[in-house]
Recover the amino acids of this structure.
C-alpha cells in the first residue's frame, strides 16, 4: 500500500514544532515532530515518502551532522534547512552536501509551503526512479550468463548474425536467447533494452 507523504519536522523549539504542525495541517499535509536529531534517527523510516524540515543548530547532534548521517545511510529524503543564525558559508555547505533548500528564520509561511511542495514532488520523482532501477536490476539478475552476453551485444547495436559469430553459436541459438532476454527483461524492443541499461548506469 502506497504511503502518503509526511513532512518530518526536527527542531528543539517546541513552539516552532507546534506552529509547523498547525501550518501543515491547514493545507492538508501530515507532519511528524521531533525535538532532536537523535529522536528523529530513532524513528526514521527510509521507505516513508515526504521531506525533512530541519533546524540547523540544535543541542547534541546538529542539523548538519544529521544530514551527513542520512547521506551515509543513502537516504533520498529531501532536506530543507531552516535557521535563525544562517550565514552564506553554512548555506553553501548544506547545499553542497545535498540539501534541497535553505530558509532563514523568520520566513513567510507561503515560501515554506512552496518549498515543501517542491521537495515532496522531488522525493516522489526520486523514489519512482529508484523503484524502476530496482526492477531492472531484478530482471537483469534473472538472466543466465549467456543471456547476459547476448544482452550486452544487443545493446551495442549488433545484429543476430554478428552476435552469433562473436559467441561462436548459430543465429538460431541467438534468436532463442534474444527472445528469452526480451521476455525476462520485460522489454518490447532493443531500444527499450538500451534505455534500461542507460538508466542503470546513471548515478542514483
Amino acid at each position: 500500500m502506497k504511503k502518503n507523504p509526511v513532512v518530518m519536522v526536527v527542531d528543539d523549539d517546541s513552539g516552532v514544532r507546534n506552529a509547523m504542525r498547525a501550518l501543515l495541517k491547514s493545507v492538508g499535509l501530515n507532519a511528524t515532530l521531533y525535538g532532536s536529531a537523535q529522536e528523529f534517527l530513532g524513528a526514521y523510516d527510509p521507505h516513508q515518502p515526504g521531506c525533512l524540515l530541519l533546524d540547523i543548530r540544535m543541542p547534541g547532534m546538529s542539523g548538519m551532522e544529521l544530514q551527513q548521517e542520512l547521506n551515509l545511510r543513502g537516504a533520498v529524503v529531501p532536506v530543507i534547512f531552516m535557521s535563525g543564525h544562517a550565514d552564506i558559508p553554512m548555506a553553501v555547505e548544506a547545499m553542497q552536501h545535498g540539501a534541497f533548500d535553505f530558509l532563514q528564520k523568520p520566513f513567510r509561511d507561503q515560501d515554506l509551503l512552496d518549498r515543501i511542495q517542491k521537495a515532496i514532488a522531488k522525493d516522489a520523482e526520486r523514489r519512482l526512479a529508484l523503484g524502476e532501477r530496482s526492477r531492472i536490476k531484478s530482471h537483469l539478475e534473472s538472466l543466465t550468463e549467456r543471456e547476459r552476453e547476448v544482452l550486452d551485444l544487443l545493446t551495442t547495436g549488433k545484429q543476430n548474425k554478428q552476435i552469433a559469430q562473436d559467441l561462436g553459436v548459430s543465429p538460431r541459438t541467438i534468436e532463442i536467447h534474444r527472445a528469452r532476454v526480451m521476455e525476462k527483461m520485460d522489454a518490447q524492443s532493443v531500444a527499450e533494452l538500451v534505455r534500461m541499461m542507460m538508466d542503470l548506469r546513471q548515478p542514483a
